[in-house]
Amino acid sequence: MAHCVTLVQLSISCDHLIDKDIGSKSDPLCVLLQDVGGSSWAELGRTERVRNCSNPEFSKTLQIEYHFETVQKLRFGIYDIDNKTPGLGDDDFLGAAECSLGQIVSSRVLTLPLMLKPGKPAGRGTITVRKRPMLAPPCASDLPPSYMTDTPAPQVRCSDYDSDGSHDLIGTFHTSLAQLQAVPAEFECIHPEKQQKKKSYKNSGTICVKTCQVETEYSFLDYVMGGCQINFTVGMDFTGSNGDPSSPDSLHYLSPTGVNEYLTALWCVGSVIQDYDSDKLFPAFGFGAQVPPDWQVSHEFALNFNPSNPHCAGIQGIVDAYRQALPQVRLYGPTNFAPIINHVARFAAQAAHQRTASQYFVLLLLTDGAVTDVEATREAVVRASKLPMSVIIVGVGGADFQAMEQLDADGGPLRTQLGEAAARDIVQFVPFRRFQNATREALAQTVLAEVPTQLVSYFKAQGWAPLKVPPAPAKGPAQTPQV
Asked: For 312, which of 143, 307, 317, 371 could close a Cys bridge (C-beta 3.0–4.6 Å)?
């Protein structure tokens, strides 16, 4: 089955555009481009031209596919159109602004200054982008062209349950949402073969519908556009198995360019997540090291050595704190995940007490080996599964990560030693070196693929709608009748 696409509709307006025409104002048009790599940009669409206007509100909207797990870098270019040719080479450039689609969807309204080139503003010119979700046709590539007009009324099947799966058909009936909503309603259950064989056959029973409720199925984008903040926390492995950081063989060794597997993985994931946190302040911790001044082993020390305020300014702030902390600690052990998971879970529990879809927490653990406190970690994950929280584990180096796969629990719910099952799957594990020959985007896509589903499943289970319900998509919200 094809992947169903989420579309975002963008409305564009500008203010205080510079005037290029003599004796009149400019005739602006907006062109939307997307970074496709290699310093190349692909045009996604353009608005109409607005004549003689310095503060245009373009009526034509622009659409773009939305993918949470990738950084979708966009460029809005404004041009003064003086001819009817599609090319822009002969038209005056009025300025441009760049941002990510993540910034747009996570902002109520995004206003950016227009630039003629880096460091040179286009006067007082600004561009404002407003967004609205859209619904693509449901897996449209799998549907025949006649789907919208020739779809038959839904069929309801009633069967006699068998544990081996060979359920015996009792009968069926066709209905519609309108009929289901006209409660109380009754439908005759008809078995087609019996109806053909027996002239005296009437039905195989009657189905009575006493209540029917239509529930809106909110998407990840609905929650983000509604104001949900994604709080990002990082935990980094400082155990002795990483090797002496001064040795080129160490996983913590900083190459002449200042990077290693830990920082590469951090940038891959963090560059996506950071767009969904308004203050861009991220708690960052280390575990498994002896820390000054008493040189006791700590499993949740602040990378900036400020336990009362472990927040770092942006992903670059985490990188800077890591580089400064590395020579100040002694790599030791063991590899304990539970303390940091429990740390984040405490904040997630406080957010849950608000009983609103206002915050969700994502913990990124970067480690070089198997977890030592297995049972404590299992218990921490099971407890966290009841909270607005996800855990991403990236394994760096070439160790055997089989134990990590168990935490991922793709084969069934994770359980504690006493048998308590996780409320939902919140762990995603990915070995970094599986992607060493792939692009950074490929790692981020795999690592973050499950976060939207995990966020939606939690808020849906709690019955919490987005804080601010977005405007209805152009083709109406996805709705499922509950009988």
From this structure: 317
